Amino acid sequence: MTTSFSGRSTDRRTFLSLLGTGAAATVGGGLLGGCSNATKTSQGSAGQKSGLSAVVPQYKPYAGLTPDIPAAAPGALPGYLRYPRDLIKAVPTVRGKGSELTVMSPLWGSPPASTNAYYAAIAARTGTPLKWNVQDGNTYRDKLTALLGAADVPDVLVIASWHLGIPRISEAIANLFADLTPMLKGDISGHWPLLANIPTDAWQSCVWGGQLKAIPWVRQAFTGYFMYRKDLFQELGVTPPKNADELLALAKAVTDPAKGRWAFNDLWQKGGGPIPQIFRVPIRNRGWVKDPSGKMVSGLETDEFEAGVAFARKLFDAKVVHPAAAGGTSGSVDFRQAFQSGKIVITSDGFGGIREAYAVQSLSNPAFRMEPFPPFAHDGKTPVVNGGDTAGLLTFVNKKLPKDKIEEYLTLADWCSAPFGTEENLLLTYGVEGTHFTRDANGAPSYTAQGQKDAGVPTYDFLGGRPPVVSESQYPDYVQMLTSWYNNAVKYLDKDMFAGIRIEEPAALQKAGQPVVDKVNDIIFGRRPVSDLEQIRKEWRSAGGDEGRAFYEKVVKDNNL
Amino acid sequence: MTVTTAAMVRRKRRSGRPIWQEPPTPAGRVGKALLLALVVLAVVFPLWVVVITSLSSQQTIDATGGLVVVPQGITPAAYLQIFSGGVVTRAVLVSTFITAAGTALSLAVTALSAYGLSRPGSLWHRPLLFAVLLTFLFGPGIIPSYLVVKSLGLIDTYASLIIPTAINAFNLVVLRAFFMNIPGELIDSARIDGAGDFTILRRIVLPLSKAALAVIGLFYAVGYWNAFFNAMLYINTTEKWPLQLVLRLYVVNGAALPSGGSSGPQSSIAGMAPAPTLSLKMAIIVIAAVPALLIYPFVQRHFTKGVIVGAVKG
Amino acid sequence: MAPGPGAAGTRASPTSPPAPGSEPSARRVSLRQRLRRDWALLVMVLPGMALFAVFHYLPSLGNIIAFQDYSPYSGGFTGSPWIGLANFRLMFTEPAFWDALGNTLTITGFQLIFYFPVPIALALALNSVISPRIRSLVQGVVYLPHFFSWVLVVSLFQQILGGAGLLAQTLRQHGMQPLDIMTSPDAFIVLVTAQTIWKDAGWGMIVFLAALSTIDPNLYEVSATDGAGRWRRLWHITLPGLRPVIVLLLILRLGDALSVGFEQFILQRESVGAGAAEVLDTYVYYQGFLVQDFGYGAAVGLFKGFVGLLLILAANRVAHRFGEQGIYQKS
Q: Which residues of chain C carry a pLDDT beneath 70?
């Protein structure tokens, strides 16, 4: 499967949020949270929220470089308008003891040689050389299944959050990986100041059964939104919409089939796309909301959902959706290319997608501009912007490793967590000056051919976590545009009431999810009438929805939410 | 007399139609030509699109919105990018070695087994054949397979890419069917002359089955060449990766790099435009298919008619 | 010398004359005698069987987890609790499972009729081409699509026949309504079969070309001099010559009847909806993914293998009734 690493992808990660199905995304099994069995008749289980803060490191922000554009609130990203000339040396000494550790990590990009100048430079700087085993990120889940099942794990193992859907992963985590709680709980800013700089919510995603099991690699909370071609909008004389009606009118205005141009690809995206967002369909809380009486209601059962589905169908009937997307998100069509070609002018993407598009288009089409719509709601009132889990990757340490080596590894992870604006971060990202990168007149680094090969693909980057920043100053207006969007949208960022609680849903609820996605797609793409929604809800309730409701009501009660 | 017949047949073939065959009717000729042209066009047009797209610039791809039909601004950037850095070149060598060694081993083992199971009424051949058939129907899971390979000490070795898949039930059964098709008189007369089964296999069955061996060899070779799953499971060292594993990274990931992190700009190589993602993907497809193009003539050479007949008469 | 099995066996081919030292009259040959006679064959089979045993049978024992609540971490293959047929019950009680099974069998049946003969026809058509150069050129070209991934095949179809593809845009520019080819649930079975033909017919042809090369050309000559036309020769010489291979491949295909391909369907599942495109493999992918259980996957694998086995045995019996070898001889 093409599990895209960048922000919002078209896989099941997105729709989990609606019906809380794919545990692949933010949730592993919660077997250790007091669950007695995990057979296929599993009733589900949930961890406890209380006590979470006691097992994770105390958040002590690292006083790094002052950003040019500060973040307005936690969740927004600070911006840097140029690459800083004077970098901070965050880790003054070589702290490793020279133990060689083995690491396995997913890879998205072409593989670096297993020994290279970049690895060597970091080994010399940290004092802890690593033996790397990088594996294709797209088949990583299969490799993990075999390794975990055979209990054949390296000293250090990186797992993406969406790989946590491997069957019984929580048992594997309990059996194979070290409990980091004794070393990392409380105030660690004296010993590992850069690990202490990782925000608490990312750390909380690394807790299983009351034990801190991993180090998070931090991504931003914003998962994705409408993206539009600002350059084409100006050409066509249209502006971003402020409500659903304007969106429809706009879509009709930009669609021109004879020219091969349509407004959208599929923006429902199994219930996780931007259209559910503008209709305020509950995507937060794994797709559940507590109504005033204390009853849990699934997103599927809400009026917002029905209105969103009806609107999505309206878009389909208006023929403003690209024909190849009519039917859903087809894996065979590259809608990013279609967007960059102007075959669609509005799409949905993660925020990293903007940077990737600029990397391609800034050379071939300098006029290319990709921006998110300013947040809006279907009725023109207060919008909601979907937020997600910030622990994108998790690094586990082998249980068999002696304590001193685990601590040595944590010291390395601390080094790898060096934030933007430090010497360590420059080495981590770009390698050695002269060998791996050169600087332009403004001091901005860019890779040499060898640098692209050794350091251009993230390896060490995944081993630490650092608060994300916006620093792509080579693209015109990019930093200003994005930081001001974040600083505005952070007001509307959704908070998850279950954040930090590892939940394994009842099997019946999990199984009931995919049929709903399929049937709702049938409605949106004209194969069933909107009026069938009531029937779909009824089927879902008896197939596992009601069981899920009882389960979530218990979770809410147990945690006093 | 038989010698002259064979010679005549050969001469006739060179001149095209054998003398006993009636000349084709004009309608039949046109119909067949039309049909074949259509079939070839249906294949060649998409092939053309793939090749042209692999050679196109980002501007051209942007203009079409996807695959390119009309060449415009041809550039080898994708191929240069793939072959820069030596990763792909090395992987080509690894894959070539695995394919050659694996195909040789597989053909040997399969031919032996196929002959061993092809003699009517031989001891235990039915239960053995049934056992082979079951492997075609029931497969092992990932974890037990990994445990077996690991306990044999094959993790991170080239052998792990060859031995576990060295024999395939489908190929075995098909080759056996060809062996059984060889006229029984040939084998019986050899036996009368005192030949044992090994001699019969080497001297009679194998030489008469070149077409079948070529086909089965091709099946195995393509299997080894295309295999990536076992390499993904069993190989840890990047330098031992076969080509398909390396190419997948380009195809699935293209130029896209992880985002949402903090590592700052993942810019392109200084002063060099990255090859368009789509051309990269198409170039990979071309590179992966080239060996198929190269190897086919060698397979096809064995599809000559009448091998068996000459042997019977001779 | 080791007496030939074909000579002394209980099922010597009727055409073969008895070899010296054979005992055609003895209905029962003792095991020791058969061993002495067939030892060479057993030695030949040994390496292949050893590979099957180590890399197939040994790990396949792991399929017992279909009857377990298997966890590799607590219990493993021997210690996990036994749950009898619970995994199978889970599979069979879902109506969606039967829908997917029905779709799969429909597609298998459809493709047996509309795909399976295509490589044979292609091989025959090419075989009748007289010019060797054209013949080898066409052969070399038509087998190439096999090397394309399904992602590429589907996107090529999309690019040419899709709603925004070459055909649709040409129609639009001439003021006509584009056809709904890629997103029509009703036409889906035709679409996937067309894709399969495009991708694999040329590849499937090769084995038939090899089989054609084993047919004695003298038979054609004799038949032609006897006045048989080209169609009679095709019917009486070519097809009988191909028959053993055709029957064998047909039986093997039946053994795989519950697999119609995974990628091709998962890629297009959303374009036409699950109603038309859900096959057993995609169903299991979604359900297995959500149920998150090793044992469930193993249970489905066993079910598919078992159905395949039944179909193979039945087809083999039918083949014997028609005097064919089938996959192995009757007892």
A: 1-28, 288-292, 328-331
B30-63 residue pLDDT tens:
888 898 899 999 999 999 999 999 999 888 888 8
d(CA A538, CA A512): 11
Burial class (CB in 10 A: 0-12, 13-18, 19+), A217: buried
> Which H helix or E strand runs over A446?
strand A445-447
- Residue A76: pLDDT band (50, 70, 90) is very high
Q: Do A39 and C86 touch (CB under 8 A)?
A: yes
| CATH number among 1.10.3720.10, 1.10.3300.10, 1.10.630.10, 1.10.3470.10, domain C105-331 | 1.10.3720.10
Assess contact for C87 and C296: CB atoms under 8 A.
Answer: yes
CB proximity B188 to C under 8 Å? yes
Identity of the amino acid at A56: V
CB contact under 8 A, A511 and C291: yes
Cα–Cα nearest to C126, from B175, B11, B300, B293: B300
- Per DSSP (E only), the strands in chain B are none
Q: Would you list the domain boundaries of chain C?
A: 105-331
Interface test with A, best of B67, B259, B282 (most A CBs within 10 A): B259
What domains are there in chain B, each with its CATH number? 85-252+280-308 (1.10.3720.10)
Residues C311 and C251: their CA atoms lie apart, in Å, by: 8
A327 vs C contacts (CB less than 8 Å): 182-183, 270-273
Is A527 in contact with C273 (Cβ distance < 8 A)?
yes
Asked if A518 reaches chain B (Cβ–Cβ under 8 Å), the answer is no
| Cβ-Cβ contacts under 8 Å, B5 against chain C | 218
Beta bridge partners of A136: A107
- Interface probe for B, chosen from A4, A8, A10, A110 (most Cβ of B below 10 Å), is A110
Do residues B142 and B233 touch, judged by C-beta distance below 8 A?
Answer: yes
The predicted structure's pLDDT at residue A121: 97
- Which helix (H) or strand (E) segment holds residue A215: the answer is strand A214-218
The DSSP secondary structure of B133-169, one letter per residue, reads HHHHH----HHHHHHHHHHTT-TTSTHHHHGGGS--H
Asked if A298 and A545 touch (Cβ cutoff 8 Å), the reply is: yes
Q: Which chain C residues in 244-303 lie under 8 Å from chain B, judged by CB atoms?
A: 244-245, 248-249, 252, 255, 294, 297-298, 301-302
Helix segments in A20-73, DSSP class H? 52-55
Nearest CB to B167 within list C52, C63, C212: C52
Interface probe, candidates A43, A170, A269, A332, chain C, greatest C C-beta count within 10 A: A332
Long-range Cβ pairs for the range A239-246 (8 Å, 24+): A240/A373, A240/A374, A240/A376, A241/A373, A241/A376, A242/A376, A242/A380, A243/A376, A243/A377, A243/A378, A243/A379, A243/A380, A244/A278, A244/A279, A244/A311, A244/A378, A244/A379
Chain A stretch 301-330, residues whose beta carbon is closer than 8 A to a beta carbon of chain C: 322-324, 326-330
Task: Identify the CA nearest to B57 among candidates B48, B68, B45, B47.
Answer: B68
ipTM of the complex: 0.85
Q: Are the beta carbons of B289 and C147 closer than 8 angstroms?
A: yes
Residues in A closer than 8 angstroms to C278, CB to CB, are: 518
What percentage of chain A reaches a pLDDT higher than 90? 60
Q: Which of residues 80-109 of C touch B (CB under 8 A)?
A: none
- The shortest C-alpha distance from C295 to chain A (Å) reads 9
Q: For residue range A38-69, list pLDDT tens digits in order.
A: 334 466 777 777 778 889 999 999 988 999 99
List CB contacts (< 8 A) between B147 and chain A: 149-150
Q: Within 13 Å and on the Cβ side, how many CA atoms surround C82?
A: 3
**What percentage of chain B reaches a pLDDT higher than 70?**
82
